[in-house]
Specification:
The protein is α/β, with parallel strands linked by helices. It is 25% helix and 36% strand. Strands 1, 2, 3, 4, 5, 6 and 7 form a 7-stranded mixed sheet that branches. The longest helix has 10 residues, at 2-11.
Length: 97
C-alpha cells in the first residue's frame, strides 16, 4: 500500500489513514475525481440512492479533508459524472465498487 499512500500524498494532504485491509483494486483501479462537481442532496446520499438507484454508481476509496486522507464511499451520477455525497471534500480518489 506504500505506492497508494505516495500517490495520495502527491495529490495533497500530509497524512493517510490506512485501515488494516485495503483492497488492491483501490490501488490498481482508483483515480482522482473532480470535486468541483458535488451535489449534497436533501435527505442525504442514502435517500438519493434509493430514489435514483439506476442513475448512480457506488464509489469507494479515499477523500481528503483537513489535510488527511480517509476511506469513504460516495455516489457518482452515470450521465454527468457528478459526485453525490453528504458533504464536500477537497479530493475524491477511488473506483466503482
Amino acid at each position: 500500500m506504500k505506492d497508494l499512500v505516495e500517490k495520495l500524498l502527491e495529490i495533497g494532504g500530509s497524512k493517510v489513514m490506512i485501515p488494516e485491509t485495503v483492497p488492491e483494486r483501490i490501488r490498481d483501479l482508483g483515480h482522482l475525481y473532480d470535486s468541483s462537481e458535488v451535489l449534497i442532496p436533501k435527505g442525504g446520499t442514502s435517500h438519493y440512492f434509493k430514489t435514483h438507484e439506476n442513475e448512480v454508481r457506488v464509489m469507494w476509496g479515499f477523500v481528503l479533508e483537513d489535510d488527511t486522507w480517509e476511506m469513504h464511499s460516495w455516489l457518482l451520477r452515470i450521465d454527468t459524472g457528478e459526485i453525490i455525497d453528504n458533504k464536500f471534500y477537497d479530493y475524491y480518489y477511488g473506483f466503482v465498487k
